[in-house]
Amino acid sequence: MRMYDLIMKKRNSEELSKEEIEYMIQEYTKGLIPDYQMAAFLMAVYFNKMTDKETVDLTMAMANSGDILDLSAINGIKVDKHSTGGVGDKTSLVVGPMVAALGVPVAKMSGRGLGHTGGTIDKLESFPGFSTSMSEEQFFKNVNSIKIAITGQTGNLAPADKKLYALRDVTATVDNLSLIASSIMSKKIAAGADVIVLDVKTGSGAFMKKEEDAFALAKEMVKIGDGAGRKTVAIVSDMDQPLGYAVGNALEVIEAIDTLNGKGPSELLELCVILGTYMLIGAEIATNEAQARKMLLETIENKTALNKLAEFVEAQGGDKAAVFNTDLLLRASIIEEITSSEEGYVEHIESEEIGIVSMLLGGGRETKESKIDLAVGLVLHKKVGDKVNIGDSIATIYANDAVKLATAKKRFNGTYTFSQKPIEKKLFIKGIIK
């Protein structure tokens, strides 16, 4: 078998066999296929696309290029949830404890954030002492005993994806549905869960800016998951403004705790309930949406989800007292209000720009080596559709550095657009693919 022949085959819009795709991924991962040949193949895929079968085969080949986590030591149907990323996205901190409180094992591998926001692990490290470094044995033990554990991704999880993504990034071949979907799903399949629930964001703060692109990606990923023998559902949700009000690691943890106390933003709770609904149905704990929803909301009312978060934090070395007293979390030394110089109704918020403001304060990573300041960020006070008067506070900025604060405030200007007429709020949940 020769890589030259596979490039020509895809160049001519022919379908590659499973064996051909496996050969290509294995040899490329070993370094036996050079970057220039793989770049040529990726460009052929970009223009000629891949069939559904090829996409599933590519995903499985990438998943099998490294470690596959065997979760058979964990009792029950294992569930996982993945978000395509957005601004203020702290859903794992809410839905994970809700689902675990109902006895469903949540075995999750998460990464750190790169870009304008921190990842789930960064947010969790806002709890003093919290660690995601644990042995596989401890990970299994925690999930079996308390039904939830979150660990960092192993260095050998889907290594083919790391190599391919780095190459796609410099050859203008990132923007292809099959390549995007297989990249995401190879890691989720390698992580071993039986049920995968996807939160696909769309809007100004999302990777998929256009709604039709987000739906296309959601459908592609569900097809891959189903083809790989995993129960897979995707929810397409709005990211034309940050999720909730808090953006920044410790600030988002506080908002997640508020939500588990029944005092959080309604759209955050709604998204978590919908994600949790399909996690429960996939785990065969609930038989329909209404039953699952009722069960999940009860975990908020009776505080079992909040107590589960505390149990989870303690099991991974964190101070559970911070769950019940958020004053124990890291606090910024400079707190400053931003007031409006305009009046009207909030028509649009540049969601990605809000994320960049948080990053400029130190709340995200510009490079892999960047050190995150977990205390900084901002809390919005006005969202799309809200009435604003001159002098009203539209956000509070939390900083630890006066120079970074000045840069962030300058960037914040222009993130809000106002209308003199009332604005109709957009549909938050765009659709469900199953």
UniProtKB/TrEMBL annotation:
<dbReference type="InterPro" id="IPR000312">
    <property type="entry name" value="Glycosyl_Trfase_fam3"/>
</dbReference>
<dbReference type="GO" id="GO:0006206">
    <property type="term" value="P:pyrimidine nucleobase metabolic process"/>
</dbReference>
<dbReference type="Pfam" id="PF00591">
    <property type="entry name" value="Glycos_transf_3"/>
</dbReference>
<keyword id="KW-0328">Glycosyltransferase</keyword>
<feature type="domain" description="Pyrimidine nucleoside phosphorylase C-terminal">
    <location>
        <begin position="345"/>
        <end position="419"/>
    </location>
</feature>
<dbReference type="Pfam" id="PF02885">
    <property type="entry name" value="Glycos_trans_3N"/>
</dbReference>
<comment type="function">
    <text>Catalyzes phosphorolysis of the pyrimidine nucleosides uridine, thymidine and 2'-deoxyuridine with the formation of the corresponding pyrimidine base and ribose-1-phosphate.</text>
</comment>
<dbReference type="InterPro" id="IPR013102">
    <property type="entry name" value="PYNP_C"/>
</dbReference>
<dbReference type="GO" id="GO:0004645">
    <property type="term" value="F:1,4-alpha-oligoglucan phosphorylase activity"/>
</dbReference>
<dbReference type="InterPro" id="IPR035902">
    <property type="entry name" value="Nuc_phospho_transferase"/>
</dbReference>
<dbReference type="InterPro" id="IPR017459">
    <property type="entry name" value="Glycosyl_Trfase_fam3_N_dom"/>
</dbReference>
<dbReference type="GO" id="GO:0006213">
    <property type="term" value="P:pyrimidine nucleoside metabolic process"/>
</dbReference>
<comment type="subunit">
    <text>Homodimer.</text>
</comment>
<dbReference type="GO" id="GO:0009032">
    <property type="term" value="F:thymidine phosphorylase activity"/>
</dbReference>
<protein>
    <recommendedName>
        <fullName>Pyrimidine-nucleoside phosphorylase</fullName>
        <ecNumber>2.4.2.2</ecNumber>
    </recommendedName>
</protein>
<dbReference type="InterPro" id="IPR036320">
    <property type="entry name" value="Glycosyl_Trfase_fam3_N_dom_sf"/>
</dbReference>
<keyword id="KW-0808">Transferase</keyword>
<dbReference type="Pfam" id="PF07831">
    <property type="entry name" value="PYNP_C"/>
</dbReference>
<dbReference type="InterPro" id="IPR018090">
    <property type="entry name" value="Pyrmidine_PPas_bac/euk"/>
</dbReference>
<dbReference type="InterPro" id="IPR036566">
    <property type="entry name" value="PYNP-like_C_sf"/>
</dbReference>
<dbReference type="InterPro" id="IPR017872">
    <property type="entry name" value="Pyrmidine_PPase_CS"/>
</dbReference>
<dbReference type="GO" id="GO:0005829">
    <property type="term" value="C:cytosol"/>
</dbReference>
<comment type="similarity">
    <text>Belongs to the thymidine/pyrimidine-nucleoside phosphorylase family.</text>
</comment>
<dbReference type="InterPro" id="IPR000053">
    <property type="entry name" value="Thymidine/pyrmidine_PPase"/>
</dbReference>
